[in-house]
Design a protein that fits this description.
The structure is a homotetramer. By secondary structure, chain A is mainly α. Chain A folds into two domains: about 1-60, Arc Repressor Mutant, subunit A (Orthogonal Bundle); about 65-209, Tetracycline Repressor, domain 2 (Orthogonal Bundle), CATH 1.10.357. In chain A, about 75% of the residues lie in helices and about 0% in strands. Chain A is built from nine helices and no strands. Chain A has helices spanning about 5-35, 40-50, 55-60, 65-90, 95-105, 110-125, 125-145, 150-170, 180-190. The radius of gyration of chain A is 21 Å and the shape is globular. The first copy, chain A, starts with a helix and ends in a 17-residue tail after the last helix. Chains in contact: A-B, C-D. Chains A and B meet through helix 8 and helix 9 of A and helix 8 and helix 9 of B. Chain C binds a DNA duplex (21 and 21 nucleotides) through helix 1 and helix 3.
Chain lengths: ~210, ~210, ~210, ~210
DNA sequence: GATGAATGAGAGTTCATTCAT
DNA sequence: CATGAATGAACTCTCATTCAT
């Protein structure tokens, strides 16, 4: 057996494994949306992915690991979107694009996907996943604050406040206007960072950002 | 049988029923704290309450109803605390007392109780429970805004932002300073309502409230 | 509700529970014999007992507990048989009746039941079950030794030697004569206790006991 | 290709195969001791041996065959030890050395290895493995009995009695003295063979062998 | 009303074994 | 020959809920 062949074979196998993993995660999202967080089960995921339950457990030692992988991917995508929106907009006008991408992810998601968020979010709130979130919000904070470094507490408050609002908007039944919510969120960010517009009345949605 | 007797008996029965319900709810909290949200089960609750599982189902048609009753009580206590703090403090200095009582409820709770919050919160986020929360936040909002009425969206953003921060502080592993977090939360509220201090640097915890 | 009624009801329930437990243990033996030790499973036991799997787990917290109960019963029956044989025979001629009852239990059992012994025996070899076995062999030892007390080690050697022989006779494929084996076992016991016949040749089965 | 070359290659291959088999068996023992009999699995064995699971199945058609090979080796080593002890000691004083080597193997083994014995022993008790055990015990018996031939039954009783005692000593929790146990075992053998000391009291450990 | 034995669908997980590469 | 990804039957166990007493 030549080394080249060995190498090819190994790569092939690795690719196949990677494909299987990706398929499982995707199936995980589909089941989570189809059956809801309560009825989310490993058997259904494997079946939907077209692999045996044993294969699932080859790659994810248990249900939690699968959920964590799904959460990681979800977070990662959101963070990338935020980062892109952040960099694509000029300093001083970044709050709104960022809020927009967040709202698009959460608010615009179909109801079934929205129902999946709380479960995923629970898995995000674990040490190993938080690290990258922290790293990201730290970087974000630095820029947002116009080079003034936000304290850990300030970064925490800002990010969790925004996340709390959009999570609530998704999981609580309500009757809110999307545009007004966006305005209020932008307002929240700008005022918190002492960047926002004139000290005028709050709650009058409009040209405030 | 005289009506009076009937009445007395009925009242006695009702009182006994009320006691049983209260006992079950209290037992519910104990089990939730003792076994955690995952292992929270009706059997254990009934046992701890000293009644049979059948009796539990006499008063709560299913597990969800029990959880909702527990959530209702928890929220109700928090809201009362907030209301007291609100009314006890002079206009213009209300943000900090309110934040304090919230932090006391969440941050100061023993770890086991903290672990119970996410589950309870999920049950708060249901239509019938939200009504009173909304009523409360609406009233609160009116006062906070110095008689300017907050829009629904603004009230939503303010309350969920604060809740999001304290929830995260409780469920995520972190390394934050309690006093600084309190300062930042107060800051968030005041700035959002355009009441807060001078447009100075953010994140320098201290004499800002 | 009168106390008498309460009492009756309780007794009724207890009786029903006892019947269920007995049924499950009996079903356990049947499954163990039918499917073999490897394939012995809780589902099959419950099914055969005509109750749900949940009921089985109401009475036996896990598979091991069921197996232990079965082992306890098996041992208990054997010990009772031995005790009866012991007491029914005159001092000095007790070895043979005891050996006979042991051989009847093991050797005469149908092959499927024999296949079940090793598993059961493994569960006998646990602290809590051993206590009664020890108590029994201690008592037996005292008598066997004509009032000389056997040391712990001697009692251990004697009982385990006999058990080892009959276990092996059951679980190993062999081609032995039952009568000769009985003779040799009796011989083993008597000689070990220095009670046995003349110092003649070993292995010539016959009128030695 | 010359025959010589073919031959060499074949031999090389055979040698390599033998090494692999030996490696697998050794890995088997390590896994058995590390994970216990319940968790003993082919995957872990292959991994520990540094080969793929497929390779394991090339050499052992199934799990049982692997276990049998392990049991065979274990037994073979014990028998060799016994044979050496037997031949190294003078006629008439062989019981104690033999008992000693047996106790050394079982009693002195580390607890993890002891836990492995019952499983191995079960695999010894199969037709093909028993043949050599029988051959050995037959030969041993002949010598032990000073040329009187033991009947099959007597050889069986003697060997299984001893094995039963040491197995029990290893698998049951107990509180026995090693020296006393050795004395009692020697006593058992000698008395059974009508070679042993005076018809004195049993259970007083000491200078009886 | 109170009881608690019984239910049973369904969960997560394991592991000996196969076979395309 | 070696590999190891894939298999899937089978397993133990949970727990919300019912209903005869």
């Amino acid at each position: 057996m030549s080394k080249a062949f060995e190498f090819t074979r190994k790569k092939t196998k690795q690719r196949r494994a990677a494909v299987t993993v990706a398929t499982l995660i995707e199936a995980g999202f589909q089941i989570l949306e189809r059956d809801g967080p309560e009825r989310f089960g490993t058997t259904a995921v494997a079946e939907r992915a077209g692999v045996s339950i044993g294969t699932l457990y080859q790659y994810f030692g248990n249900k939690d690991e699968l959920l964590k992988a799904m959460a990681r991917q979800e977070v990662s995508e959101l963070l990338q979107g935020v980062a892109r929106a952040f960099e694509a907009s000029p300093q001083g006008s970044r709050a709104r694009p960022v809020v927009r991408i967040i709202l698009r992810t959460f608010w615009d998601a179909p109801p079934d996907r929205q129902a999946a968020f709380p479960l995923l979010l629970r898995y995000v709130a674990r040490a190993d996943l938080m690290r990258e979130v922290k790293a990201f919000t730290a970087g974000l904070g630095r820029d947002l604050a116009l080079r003034q470094s936000l304290s850990d507490e300030a970064a925490f408050v800002l990010t969790r406040a925004v996340l709390g609002v959009v999570s609530a908007a998704v999981s609580e039944p309500h009757n809110l206007d999307r545009q007004k919510l966006e305005d209020e969120l932008v307002h929240l960010i700008l005022r918190y960072l002492n960047l926002g517009g004139a000290p005028q009345a709050v709650g009058k949605a409009g040209a405030r950002a």
